[in-house]
């Protein structure tokens, strides 16, 4: 098996939800006047799709071994990511051994440094890396959590992200994270509305249920500080991604400014051990939230997580469906996981990457038994009903 080599890598593009989970139809809670860095332009305030949050679509990477076994993964990246896989990265993958994950990662990262390091290129590298882990698991007939060293818990616990933490509470989740709706350009009135929304939700869920606010990079330090102070009386557990991911200094200051006991979280748009080193060494946050499909994949996340552990920081991956479930099961410093509510009204549990994956497990009563992950690789298949398009067929 150590001698199995990789015969082909193929990159496809898919539209409509799935790994590009912001690509949803009208009326979805995820696109309803959510504060963003673009909210200062009134014409881009109501909808994130209006400024292009969904332009990329999903990248599907398929990797086939010399014995015909196929591993695959999905992430955000679409056509430009497919170009990078087929025209650049394929040379490091085809002909390599199926066990060569570290070497392939290093070659992909080093060879793209001149135009990569973060964002789309690292999403692409993540997609290839996850497909390699899936392939290795399928070749060895073991779930990825076993390849990672084995689970440290029998069950995962989830908080839910969506517009209705009150419904999430009834569904058994341990907490609810809501999008922030109004940014600094909507002034004091917007701030008041943000706090009213939190207060209303606190009334509905009672004093003990976790409530968090996801600010999606939309605030400045002054506004974030005022929001945190105002939100304290409503028991806000954490303030997430309040500032630009480039503003490490702002995050360090925000962590000093927030009321005692409130956590500062960020990192879903951060990448690689070097990016997370900045967050950790500068004391930017209490919880880092790498997205497994965007941060460099699982090979990189293992390194990021070790670094976080040494800084006493928790690692609670952003979204990422099965890719994060297999990881969270194996880490002591990942005590719970995120579940993104993809039902348009956030009123029922549907698979996070629906409709792209078949066999994608979901939490039941806010929990997931490890046995739901006991299938080779990441344990999911591509849904054959989804229309794959291969734009750069070599
Ligand atoms: C709800 C947020 O704006 C975003 O769509 C998802 C996110 O940042 C998260 O799940 O965290
Ligand atoms: Mg977030």
Automatic annotation (TrEMBL):
It is an enzyme of class 4 (lyase). Pfam families: MR_MLE_C (PF13378), MR_MLE_N (PF02746). Its EC number is 4.2.1.90. Reaction proceeds via a syn dehydration. Mg(2+) binds at residues 214, 240, 268. SUPFAM superfamilies: Enolase C-terminal domain-like, Enolase N-terminal domain-like. The gene is rhmD. Binds 1 Mg(2+) ion per subunit. This is L-rhamnonate dehydratase. Its cofactor is Mg(2+).
């Amino acid at each position: 098996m150590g001698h199995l080599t990789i015969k082909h890598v193929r990159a496809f593009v898919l539209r409509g939800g799935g790994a590009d989970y912001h690509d949803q139809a009208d009326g979805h809670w995820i696109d309803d006047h959510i504060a963003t860095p673009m909210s200062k332009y009134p014409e881009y305030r109501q909808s994130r799709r209006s400024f292009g949050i969904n332009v990329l679509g999903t990248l599907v990477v398929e990797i086939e071994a010399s014995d015909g076994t196929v591993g695959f993964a999905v992430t955000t990246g679409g056509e430009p990511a497919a170009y990078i896989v087929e025209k650049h990265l394929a040379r490091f993958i085809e002909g390599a051994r199926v066990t060569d994950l570290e070497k392939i990662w290093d070659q992909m990262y080093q060879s793209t440094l001149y135009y990569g390091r973060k964002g789309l290129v690292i999403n692409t590298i993540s997609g290839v890396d996850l497909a390699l882990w899936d392939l290795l698991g399928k070749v060895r007939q073991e779930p990825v959590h076993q390849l990672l060293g084995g689970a440290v818990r029998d069950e995962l616990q989830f908080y839910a992200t969506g517009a209705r933490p009150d419904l999430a509470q009834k569904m058994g989740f341990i907490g609810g994270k809501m999008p922030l709706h109004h940014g600094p350009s909507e002034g004091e009135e917007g701030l008041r509305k943000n706090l009213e929304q939190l207060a209303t939700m606190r009334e509905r869920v009672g004093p003990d249920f976790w409530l968090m606010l996801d600010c999606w990079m939309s605030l400045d330090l002054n506004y974030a500080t005022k929001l945190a102070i105002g939100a304290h009386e409503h028991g806000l557990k954490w303030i997430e991604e309040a500032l630009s991911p480039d503003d490490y200094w702002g995050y360090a200051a925000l962590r000093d400014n927030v009321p005692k006991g409130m956590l500062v979280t960020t990192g879903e748009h951060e990448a690689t051990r070097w990016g997370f080193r900045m967050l950790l060494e500068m004391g930017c946050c209490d919880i880092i939230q790498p997205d497994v499909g965007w941060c460099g994949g699982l090979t990189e996340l293992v390194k990021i997580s070790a670094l976080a552990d040494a800084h006493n920081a928790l690692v609670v991956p952003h979204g990422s469906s099965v890719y994060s479930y297999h990881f969270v099961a194996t880490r002591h410093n990942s005590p719970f996981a995120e579940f993104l509510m993809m039902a348009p009204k956030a009123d029922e549990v549907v698979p996070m990457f629906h409709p792209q994956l078949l066999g994608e497990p979901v939490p039941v009563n806010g929990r997931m038994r490890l046995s739901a992950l006991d299938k080779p690789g990441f344990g999911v298949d591509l849904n054959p009903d989804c229309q794959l398009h291969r734009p750069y067929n070599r």
